[in-house]
Amino acid sequence: MMRLRQPFGNSLCVTLLFFGLLACRYGQAEADSGSEVDAKLWPVVSTEAKPGAYWWWMGSAVDKDGIRWNLEQAAQNGIGTLHIIPIYGVQGNEANEISFLSPKWLEMLDCAVREGAKLGVNIDMTLGTGWCFGGPGVADEDSATLASFKRDDAGRVSVAPRRKAVMVKRAAPGGEGPMLDPFSLRGIKRYTDGFEERFATYTGLMPRAFYHDSYEYRADWSDGLYAAFEALHGYRLQDHLDVFVFKGEEDAPEADRVRRVKADYRRTLADMHFAFTKHWTDWTKARGLSSRNEAHGSPADWLDIYALADIPETEFFRNDKNPVVAKFASSAAHVGGRTLVSSESGTWADEHYNERLGALKVLFDGFFLSGVNHLFYHGMIYSPVVAPWPGWAFYASTEMNPRNTIWKDAKYLNEYIARVQSVLQAGKPDNDILLLWTLDEPWHRLDRTVVNFSIHNATDGMFRTTSGDLAEKLWKAGLTFDYVSPRRLKELHVRDGKILAGHGEYKILLVPELPYMTPEVFACLLELKDRGAELWFDGSWPKDVPGFAHLEKRRNELNALKRRAPKPIETRLIESLEKHLGFSVDESPPCLGRTDLKTISRRVADGRYIFTANIDSGFEMSEKNVQDGIDTWYRLPFPANEVVILDPMTGKTGKADWRQSLQNGEPEVRLQLRPNQSLILRLFDKKPEVDLEKWVYCDMVGKEPRVLKGRWKVDFLSGGPTLPESFETDSLRSWTDKGGDYENFSGTAKYSLTFDYDSEDRGKPLCRLNLGPVCDSATIKLNGHDLGGVFCAPMVMDFPRALLEMKDNLLEIEVTNRAANRIRYMDKAGISWKIFKDINIVDVHYQKFDASTWPILPAGLTGPVSIE
Q1: 439 by DSSP, 3-state: which?
Q2: Which residues pair with 799 in a beta bridge?
Q3: What pLDDT is stored for residue 31 in this prediction?
Q4: Within 13 A of 363's CA, how many CA atoms are on the CB side?
Q5: Can you point out the beta strands (E) in 307-432?
Q6: Which residues contact 407 (CB under 8 A, 6 or more apart)?
Q7: What's the per-residue H, E or C state across 40-91?
Q8: Which CATH number fits domain 706-867: 2.60.120.260, 3.30.830.10, 3.40.50.2300, 3.60.9.10?
Q9: Burial 274-305, CB ≥16 within 10 A → b, else e
Q10: pLDDT tens for each residue of 231-268
Q11: Which candidate, 100, 110, 131, places its Cα nearest to that of 67?
């Protein structure tokens, strides 16, 4: 249920009765496929289960009518949350800009929250403008600081901090200024005090959550660094400033001291950023709001920073799509007892106006397999209704907004997302292994000052370690795991041999082959072992202690602890884990999740859900055909007394073909998955009290398909720059081949065909309509019956055979292409649409955007269309 929050004057989180009924209305099961049984098998689709979207306010030049219209469009298309991010404005539109947190701006915020509630849409907002935290109220001493080191003639090293090292990026009016010092507790307290003051007289409704974007501060120094360093490590950093100007080789006599002092410096900064983050998340919670935070990019342990937020948020950025990186956010949620894991989704998924819904679907499946269950489009910009096409635009794709052509059929993708996320928000996480993750190895790097851990350099940074190597091996082997940080070890419990962390129950605590570990962490591991935890060391025990202080004392402590530790697994760790967990790579049929077909499961009171997707390991949409799909039996790693298949694309359900193994009694299920297709298995501990129909399996390779022939009529329904003339054709090909208006057009055209169909296969329950290549999405009607939409290759739709008549069947297919051809036309014609301040519009390589040289993309049906 949506919760509407009163102003700061009442920090309790309350539900307003007036909107309560509206919230209940939007909390009903919207995944119903038309069958009462289907509806009972799906979890209720809550507002949080629907996708969210970043909602950029350009110059905060919004008005109430525009807010209502944008919210209505979002609600109608299945968006559940909009996240307000005030940013730079539109050229020449200064008169309509609203200063951030001014009385008028707060009036617009209240309007957005109230109107969103009526429509079942949550509102979040960034705690500032642009990114990251900062603005005009940040004093010099609280601003992000970079250190400059200089050695004098006597060999002494001094430090000269440079304030205001970076300004708020993409700031909105009223939000310009320096970024905060991300290591300053004093600075973040003053920052939240500023919001406290602005909201003190605000009588409107508060958003659901405050948000902090990915860490893009440029800082490596802070006023409080010396004191924090000495308190943490027991010696003075001032006495070792020479480590910051060290130019020697890796094996130089002084190199070890340099590494160790730098490691202590980096640990100190990590602790200071932890305190910074803890303050604003605690402050947010005390006011009845939730916090969303992207920890990636920071120099601290992501797990600890993510875990401070109510909703940790990860990201795939362009080609940086690594599931073992995304799992840091979901691990923090699982181990910390959080339900929601969000993601910044579709950032530079493709060039502007080249995005395809099918490619987004496969990308999002990668998020789901990584544990995300509350994704946000990047994004849906606010644009006035009267703005000429393509309206206002954010500098970085994806353009998921009502003006982009993909919006028309995005509702089908959004329904898919809502069904999947309703499942992945149900119950509890269900991973087997807790993998200890520490940063001591990268913290001991000889180069640099601070070491920031970014999704962009993950494989070259924190994943160029023994811990990263092990995480990759576990993922590839299909062994399910969550990360745990040293800070969280003390919060773990052990019951009946299971390790309890947050909502998770784990069978093994696995320690990588680490070069460094503190005696305190080692002792904590052994304490968990003494309480019954299964503790495994990969390869060898930790070799040394980190840092510089009291080296010999701490080394002796570590060595003493090793004598109590279990013997490390020196070879074939994966095979040993498989055997312990009850898996065997030699068994037939293969175990689901242990092949290229990855899975994620959730434990519920009466069984489990298992989500699986037949997708490329790089989360790229495959162009393979139906016959390249999967049709095989899989062994399930869990007990079951009934197995039901749920199709998140259609909402349909059915009892699977399954059996008990003759070898060990484990359940085995037949799965059919087309390329790019996803399914959900519902495992029941007991037979469900519903009448289940059997799942209908289709022949992947059947008889020769029947190509539909005849005269196609093509009518252009909506789009631009102008609607081309209708035409008829006997041969399907891209409408752009006709040249002129056709090659410039982006929008929707309806293809209509009347055809006869014989009755030789009248006994089969389903037929399959294969549209062939579609550029780029389609909705289908057969004899007036709405069959739904298709947007992901292969473009097929299964439908009841009973819908076909022997004579005069009417097939109507509305095809929508990408907006790229129209944007190409505008740039070739010199039409002004790139009218934004700051960075304006850039291409995927952050160069000046120019679509005039783009090739013309194919559009429409290119055939053949067939029925199987």
Answers
A1: coil
A2: 767
A3: 37
A4: 27
A5: 311-317, 342-347, 374-377, 428-429
A6: 73, 77, 400, 401
A7: HHCCCCCHHHCCEEEEEEECCCCCHHHHHHHHHHHHHCCCCEEEEEEECCEC
A8: 2.60.120.260
A9: bebbebbbebbbebbbbbbbbbbbbbbbbbbb
A10: 999 999 999 999 999 999 999 999 999 999 999 999 99
A11: 110
pLDDT surpassing 70 at residue 821: yes
Question: Judging by DSSP bridges, how do beta strands 766-770 and 866-867 pair with one another?
Answer: antiparallel
pLDDT of residue 318: 87
Question: Per-residue pLDDT averaged across 519-538, rounded?
Answer: 98
Is the CATH number 3.10.350 carried by domain 432-579? no
Count the neighbouring beta carbons within 10 Å of the beta carbon of residue 318: 14
Helix residue ranges, H only, 287-343: 302-307, 323-336
**Residue 93, class by beta-carbon neighbours within 10 Å (0-12 exposed, 13-18 middle, 19+ buried)?**
middle
DSSP 555-613: HHHHHHHHTTSPPPB-S-HHHHHHHHHT--TTSSSPBTTSSSS-EEEEEETTEEEEEEE
Question: What average pLDDT does this structure show over 294-305?
Answer: 96
Task: Tell whether the model's pLDDT for residue 509 goes beyond 50.
Answer: yes
Residue type present at position 384 = P
**Residue whose structure tokens are 């570590």:** 558
Residue 334, φ and ψ in degrees, nearest 5: -60, -50
Check: CB of residue 280 under 8 Å from CB of residue 188: yes
Give 501's strand partners: 504
Q: Which residues contact 178 (CB under 8 A, 6 or more apart)?
A: 134, 138, 140, 143, 144, 163, 164, 165, 166, 167, 168
Q: In the chain, where are the structural domains located?
A: 140-419, 432-579, 587-684, 706-867
Q: Which residue has the higher pLDDT, 2 or 77?
A: 77
Is there a contact between 811 and 782 (Cβ–Cβ < 8 Å)? yes
User: Beta-carbon neighbour count of residue 841 at 10 Å?
Assistant: 18
Q: Which CATH number fits domain 587-684: 3.40.190.10, 2.70.70.10, 3.90.180.10, 2.60.40.1180?
A: 2.60.40.1180
Q: What is the pLDDT of residues 563-582, one digit of tens each?
A: 999 999 999 999 999 999 98
Per-residue pLDDT tens digits for 382-413: 999 999 999 999 999 999 999 999 999 999 99
Identify which of 341, 346, 296 has the alpha carbon closest to the alpha carbon of residue 53: 346
Residues present in the chain in total:
868
Q: Which residues touch 763 (CB under 8 Å, ≥6 apart)?
A: none
**Residue 19 reports pLDDT greater than 70:** no
Structure tokens of 820? 């790229």
* E strands, 360-487, in order: 374-377, 428-429, 433-436, 481-484
Closest CA to 70 of 507, 367, 383, 516: 383
3-class state of residue 386 by DSSP: coil
For residue 777 the two structure tokens come to 């999405």
Distance CA 371, CA 245 (A): 42
Q: Region of 785 please: left (phi>0), alpha (psi -120 to 50) or beta.
A: beta
And the tokens for 81?
Answer: 């949350």
Whole-number pLDDT of residue 759: 66
Q: What CA–CA distance (Å, rounded) separates 633 from 654?
A: 17
The token pair that represents 345 in the structure block = 């989704």
Q: Where are the alpha helices (DSSP H) in 101-184?
A: 103-119
Residue 680 CB partners (closer than 8 Å, separation 6+): 420, 423, 609, 610, 611, 612, 645, 646, 647, 648
How many Å apart are CA 862 and CA 831, to the nearest integer?
30
* Window from 523-527, 627-631, 813-817 with minimum mean pLDDT: 627-631
End-to-end CA distance of the chain: 44
Q: Which fold would CATH assign to domain 140-419? A: TIM Barrel (3.20.20)
Average pLDDT over residues 581-596: 83
